[in-house]
Amino acid sequence: MGRRGRLSESGPRARLSTYPVPPVKGPVRTCVGCRGRDQRTALLRLVLDASMHGDSVAGARRIVVDVRACLPGRGAWVHPEPRCLELAERRRAVPRALRVDGPLDLGEVRAHLGQ
Predict the structure, then answer these.
(1) What is the mean pLDDT of the chain?
(2) Is the confidence at residue 12, as pLDDT, over 80?
(3) What's the CA gap between 86 and 100, in Å, rounded?
(4) Domain at 62, CATH number
(5) Which residue of 5, 12, 28, 31 has the fewest C-beta atoms within 10 A of its own C-beta?
(6) Annotated region Disordered: where (predicted)?
(7) How many domains does the chain have?
(8) Which domain holds residue 90?
(9) pLDDT band, very low/low/confident/very high, at 51 (cuts 50, 70, 90)
(10) What is the distance between the alpha carbons of residues 33 and 88, in angstroms, rounded to a whole number?
(11) How deeply is 28 buried, as exposed, middle or buried, from its count of CB atoms within 10 A (0-12, 13-18, 19+)?
(12) Cα–Cα distance measured from residue 58 to residue 114, given in angstroms and rounded to the nearest whole number
């Protein structure tokens, strides 16, 4: 008889993530900069500025911090640390998370983190 019901390490019940599970229950998001998982309340949500109908003067679309995490549209989550924002910029993770092409203006986000 063959071995039935045995799962390999890559089977459907295999562990999917190597990140530690946060001890507190609630919504968990991934930082686009450091790729670390954290509580939704510990991260900042970044969204495209919906008030601008066209591109800005420099041709870059503006990214704003969604403090209340309730603005419409796709969001990118980042830890409120300049290091994570720099990593996200270097990896070009914010445009990828927002599914947009072209340059993005992160000046308002930098000013928010500088406070």
Answers:
(1) 83
(2) no
(3) 19
(4) 3.30.1230.10
(5) 5
(6) 1-21
(7) 1
(8) 28-114
(9) confident
(10) 4
(11) middle
(12) 23
Per the model's pLDDT, the better-predicted residue between 79 and 60 turns out to be: 79
Is 36 domain-assigned? yes
Where b means 16+ CB within 10 Å and e means fewer, 49-77 reads eeeeeeeeeeeebbbbbbeebebeeebbb
Range from 13-17, 35-39, 57-61, 75-79 carrying the lowest mean pLDDT: 13-17
Assigned domain for 10 exists: no
User: Taking the model in full, what pTM does it have?
Assistant: 0.73
Amino acid at 3: R
Residues constituting the chain = 115
Identify whether 12 is part of a domain.
no
Which has more confidence, 45 or 9?
45
Q: Is 12 helix (H, G, I), strand (E, B) or coil?
A: coil
Q: CA 82, CA 66: separation in Å to the nearest integer?
A: 17
What is the token pair recorded at 30?
């991934």
What is the helix, strand, coil percentage profile of the chain, to 5? 25, 20, 55
Exposure b/e, 94-113, CB count within 10 A at least 16 = b: bbebbeeeeebbbeebeebb
